[in-house]
Specification:
The structure is a single chain. Helix 8 (289-298) links the parallel strand 7 and strand 8. The chain is α/β, with parallel strands linked by helices. The termini are far apart. The protein is globular, with a radius of gyration of 23 Å. The longest helix is centred in the last third of the chain and has 13 residues, at 336-348. It contains 11 helices and 12 strands. The chain has a 7-stranded parallel β-sheet with strand order 7-8-6-9-10-11-12, sandwiched between helices. 22% of the residues lie in helices and 15% in strands.
Length: 469
């Protein structure tokens, strides 16, 4: 696939990007001397009780390998590590188990090359003070880093555009039907904006992503897999089903890992929010955001159904494929642990674009109403090493040298605080951060802008309807 066409397809994720055992002792090999304490990379504020994420030093890889062979499953779950100092610390904090964060799978060689095999999660009695548990584990010389796990919740101000019904929908539909016959295309000003102010007040011609011209060059490509990391995608939706990624070696909800990727029954992706293959889009509190984003990217075009997707194809099975990486479910948030698992899963299973229409608060967030986020790349990388390492893995290992793209693209929303800085992780230099504009080329009333933002794309403005009430 030509690079220019790939850039066109990348627009699909930009559009609404701006709108959480039995223990057997083993012989301990002689290892080089290590520092006396591990680095605790972040603060315990709002930390999840009874959990800590740790990264071992590379010097103990062989010892961990031996312990792994005695574990009960591919994740490496065990009650003890086989490292005496570590196991004494586990006893002190009342540990239940220690488990590899990234399961052993067919990409184990890449996992080890990236050092992700060294990340483990320790679970212990929730009554144990998590700060004291971290300090105890920090004395274990074989541990390099300790990271508190936190629940990441979706903000309440994710606001999709309010589209005012057109006064002459029939005429507009006829004008755009020559492209595709999807009835919703006539309302998708963000694709083709002809300046019709009966559709959106203050609209200006050309304030769109220029789909009319882009579709002449490329309407999609099924070799491109876009991982939507969000709420669950309604994979059975009649306007999405034909463009869903399908893991053909698996049986949905099966209790067997037929393809050896470390996850059971994962046909359309995986629900990391609840650690189940069942993709859920109807829990109390769900907003439908994941399905909305997926539709913007890859709703099937020219099928006489619903809306168009930027890269939904031409009606001949040639749209991009959507993989559902569910990290939000209803009123429940995600965590760096689940998020990192989802990122690596996407890379290991063929996704080349990671769409994340979410992010942390910016460093300029209103401190009176919310906690301020990271201010620099260095600050984010230091406090979120597990997240960063997983994203680095995606950038460097997604795709293949012989495929459509070698390496991955990661897209984030800039934020919805109307602040002059993008939130992380999107603001990090290796990712693409997307701000939102309205139908008149102006910044949307909610979008973050300025430092850390890479590009602006149509996101609408929920304040439009006020001018026509």
């Amino acid at each position: 696939m030509k690079l220019k066409n790939l850039i066109i397809l990348a627009g699909a994720i930009l559009l609404f990007g701006a709108c959480t055992d039995t223990y057997s002792p083993v012989e301990i090999p002689t290892a080089p001397e290590t520092p006396k304490s591990a680095v605790i990379v972040n603060t315990p504020d709002e930390a999840i009780s009874g959990e800590l994420m740790i990264k071992f030093r590379p010097e103990v890889t062989e010892l961990l390998n031996r312990a792994l062979t005695r574990s009960t499953n591919a994740y490496g779950t065990a009650t003890r590590s086989g490292i005496p100092d570590m196991d004494r610390a586990l006893e002190i904090i009342g540990s239940y188990n220690i488990e590899r964060i990234f399961p052993v799978n067919r990409q184990e060689e890449l996992t080890r090359k990236a050092g992700l095999n060294l990340w483990y999660i320790v679970r212990f009695d929730e009554k144990t003070d998590v700060r004291k548990a971290a300090e105890e584990l920090a004395q274990v010389g074989e541990i390099a880093k300790i990271q508190y796990n936190r629940e990441l919740k979706r903000r309440d101000d994710q606001r999709p555009a309010v589209i005012v019904p057109p006064t002459d929908a029939a005429t507009r539909m006829m004008q755009k039907a020559s492209i595709f016959n999807d009835p919703g295309l006539s309302k998708q000003w963000h694709y083709i904006n002809d300046g019709d102010q009966t559709l959106v007040p203050n609209s200006k011609q050309g304030a769109d992503v220029n789909c009319a011209e882009a579709w002449k060059k490329c309407t999609g490509d099924p070799s491109i897999i876009v991982a939507v990391m969000d709420e669950g995608v309604m994979w059975a939706h009649p306007d999405l089903q034909a463009n869903m990624w399908i893991n053909e070696d698996e049986i949905y909800k099966s209790d067997k890992d037929n393809d050896g990727n470390g996850y059971k029954g994962d046909v359309y992706g995986y629900n990391f929010a609840q650690q189940t293959p069942t993709i859920d889009w109807s829990s109390e509190g769900d907003t439908g955001h994941g399905t909305h984003v997926a539709g913007t990217i890859a709703a099937v075009n020219n099928n006489g159904e619903g809306v168009c997707g930027i890269a939904g194809g031409s009606g001949n099975g040639d749209g991009v494929k959507i993989m559902s990486i569910q990290i939000f479910s209803g009123n429940y948030g995600t965590s760096p642990y689940s998020e990192a698992q989802g990122i690596k899963y996407a890379a290991d299973n063929g996704a080349v674009i990671l769409q994340c229409s979410w992010g942390y608060n910016s460093a300029l967030a209103d401190a009176a109403t919310s906690m301020r986020g990271f201010a620099t790349d260095e600050e984010w990388a230091q406090n979120c090493p597990l997240e960063k390492e997983a994203m680095d893995y995606f950038i460097h290992n997604a795709g293949s040298p012989n495929g459509t793209i070698e390496g991955g693209l990661i897209i984030f929303a800039s934020g919805n605080e109307y602040a002059a800085a993008a939130g992380y992780p999107g603001a990090y230099g290796d990712f693409i951060s997307v701000a939102a504009m309205d139908a008149s080329f102006m910044p949307s009333s909610y979008t973050n802008y300025g430092r850390g933002v890479d590009i602006t794309a149509p996101g609408g403005d929920s304040d439009y309807h006020k001018s026509v009430q």
